Amino acid sequence: MNKISIIIPVLNEAKTIEALLCHLVDNALLENISEIIIVDGGSTDGSQEIIKNSGLNIILLSSPKGRAIQMNAGVKVAKGNILYFLHADSFPPNQYDKLILNEIEKGHKAGCFRLQFDSNHWWLRLASWLTQFSWRACRGGDQSQFITRKLFDDIGGYDERYMIYEDNMLINALYARNQYVVINKKITTSARLYEKHGVWKLQYHFWSIYVKKWFGASADELFAYYKKYIC
Questions:
Q1: Which domains are present in the chain?
Q2: CB 32, CB 25: distance < 8 Å
Q3: Strand, helix or coil at 185?
């Protein structure tokens, strides 16, 4: 029987993690969920205490900081044959478990949901609308990623050289194998980073990172740019 292991990397997510955990439990049949694994990268805001006191059966791990490192660490203890990688500020649609399992039964080995920001800014609404299409440029980690354990292992997991852009590296590998589907239901993600930096400024920097990678920038170069202009 197919079972989903949910893996969530966190770093100082005290504001959202409790609500997310309740959302995951309330919007799925728990018989389809093998476990929820949270991998903390060194939070100092009380995130770990909130998780421990949630009253839910959560596996909490500690790991060096870096989403790729954290997610790979979660995979090592995961028991499900389907891995579902989720950001701490992204809330999947109702019956997300059934939607994922339906795609697996159709033979789709990896994919994501459409995206919806919790903002009415016209550009973010347009960017969200575009995620319904299969174009590679419309993909990102905020849409979450499901993938069979076998395919994930065949790819070699997340590339831990990348402190940022790790989701895109996995997506690139999946597109190269023609193994990707976009589920036509919306996951809602926070626009907090856009609100902090400004929509156009942040979008410019994200495009710059994408173009830099296109022209061969290394993992270290991408991270240096991110630290300078975004982090």
A1: 4-190 (3.90.550.10), 194-231 (no CATH)
A2: no
A3: strand
